[in-house]
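Q: Could you fold this chain for me?
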Amino acid sequence: MGRFHKREHGTTLIEQMVALLLGSVMVVALYGFYRVQLFQILSQETKTATLQDVRGALDIMVRDLKNAGSWGNGSAPLETGAIDDPERDADGVCNRIYAATASMIHVQMDLNGNGNCSDADPKENIRYELTGPTSTCPGTKIIRRNGDCLVANVNTPTIGKLFSYFDGSGADLGESPTPEVIKRIRIAFAVQIKNPDPQVGGSITSDLSTSVELRNE
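A: Sure. Below is the predicted structure, expressed as structure tokens.
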């Protein structure tokens, strides 16, 4: 009767090293793929959340500009010479647009029809300006509404130009227009948020713009 010999071989060190190398390559590849997908999702969520907040702020700006020159009693009330006349101009009545530059606009209205345009509730005397940051409102530039931070981390397509002004025929009125001839206002700015992926760095930028047609006085 023949004798049968069963030989059992274990894995060699080289085989173990090859297996370990292949496993490491797969783990690194999966981690890299997972990391890229994770930070893409985080970046998209950051941009979406930022856009939602800034669109809300832009809606406030649009609403205020559309209400400019709303005189509840049918005509522009007299200025009080205080809040509604900060520059002490020669004009004695409230103005739909009190002052306008490329980085600032000051509008007035009388929403409750009580004969003045300086009420705080509802806000009837409103000033928007592109200015420097504060301790609670970061970024190179911010947008303020009556001194309060409205939008942080602001950038503009043209440095220092937040507002563009046009007359009734669509002609650009420049950076310091005569308030009485303004019929349309364009608002354009971007918001920059730090990219959540430290390996990529830089900022995520969200651009926003809109135009507002002013009501007839």
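A (continued): The mean pLDDT is 86.
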